[in-house]
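Readers of this paper often ask what the protein records in our data store actually look like. The remainder of this section carries one protein's record, kept here as part of the documentation.

:::
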Amino acid sequence: MSDSERVQEYLDKHAQLKDERTDMQGQWEKITRYVLPSRDAWEDDANAEPAKRGREISDGRAVKDAQTMANGFIGWNAGPAVKWMKLRLLIDELNDMVGVKDWLEICEKRVYIMFHRSNFYDALAELYLDLVTIGTGTMLIEESAEDFTINYSTRHPKESYLIEGTNDKVQGLQRDVWLTGRNALERYGHDLKDETYDRFVDEPQKKYRFLHVIHPRSDRRIYSGLSVDMAYASVELYPDDETILRESGYDEFPAIVGRWRKNSNSPYGWSPAMDALTDITRANEVKKTMIDVAHRAAEPILNIPQEMSRRLNLSPLGANVYKTPDRRIFPTELGSGYPLADNVLEQLHEIIDEHFMVPLFMMLQRLERDVTATEIVERQGERIAGMAGPLNRQNSEILGPAVLRTFKIMWRAGMLPPPPAALLTTGAPLDVEFTGLLSQAQRRYQQGNSMNAGLATISGLVQMTQSIGLLDNLDMDDMTRKIAEESGFPASSIAELPEVKKKRMARQKQIEEQKQLEQLQVGADATNKLAKAPEPGSPGEQIAAQMAGAGGG
């Protein structure tokens, strides 16, 4: 396929994707208007004067709640102060091989270091705000060769058009990228057409739209090592010229796309803010009415005698001279709607709070000490159960892919140690276990109920049958290791299975040696007693005399 045919195919696909997203973008614009004013910028032309943001917000409860929810997920599940993930091998048996857990823990620490020294957590905070409001968040993860780090960039929702594969996973996207003429010249130089190059030189501050296409590459030479043969194609073009300006690639899909939840007929997500949108708009209407009532109370409609209409003075400390005292200025009584409106607004606020799980996160914020996953389950079990779907999707679409993409970039850059020799021939894929507080609580809620019920039943059977041997059916070692791992114990604190066997053998040997010493001591005591002459008049003396008499006879 020629370059011109490819460009036309990309542009036709872009028009199709834009048309398919029209209805969803209408929802996004409403959401950002009332809940996320920082994203309320949907102009097609980047050179147009942006609309004033936040001007339609009368009630800021949803803005605050969305920020509380996003901060809650960051702070309690994947924040910079939380150890929220552990690296594992997907084949569980391999994790128990000698040296594997220690190697994974070293790699894990270095990935954490990369997250902390880069802008990962800043980008993640932006992505979570998009997630809980717009329902879809997109982050690009790219190498930065200049400073040996990784760049994480959360993109505005209007920029990205998503392409799903057959497994409901995003496998490609097209991005509208706006560059100033100066930036375009620096990036593409004379790869631009001559007339385009001259136009950018003449108007260096004006912004121009470019198209960045990322998609799986089907026709490639797998082992060539060239960027144009990597697994994912990266194509940059200028639509006005229908010209491909740059083509390279990625070893894995570079975009992290998270959806709060989604329908099968759309690649875009649905958010708590969308669920609450009706209540949010009503709260804004009620609050606006209350503000209007307050204004009327402070500056009421006045009834003025006709003869005073031209000489009325309403300025501070002003004076109005009356000819007839009965002809006074008085305000129009419109009634008091404050109590009713205040009750309605309070009810709407409670509903909005529930949509954004504010009671859960406020409970966590009010605690004066560190809280455990078990306490969260005890206090907020039902809300934790309802969080299962969105939390699992966040882990599988955002946090997990971000960790694996970072790991692979660092691996290719030589930033990670070589694996144990035992793994060199296995080719086991890497997996991520999530140990953030909310993930632990959600997992513990699901597993704890069934485990507690099972242990209670077994305990009842043991008491009923008086047979402690029933517990032999349980693998206590396996239960202990799993509880330690799920509680966030570092791998270095959990002994390898061969080491556990050595400790037990040494302990058993020590017990046996102690028994032998005790037996020798008992024998020595008995010998000493036999060698000692019996005391006069004692039973021993009588037995000795009888034995002596029998021997003489």
About this structure: The chain has a mean pLDDT of 85. The chain is about 50% helix and 15% strand. Residues 497-552 form one domain. Residues 286 and 344 are 8 Å apart (CA to CA).
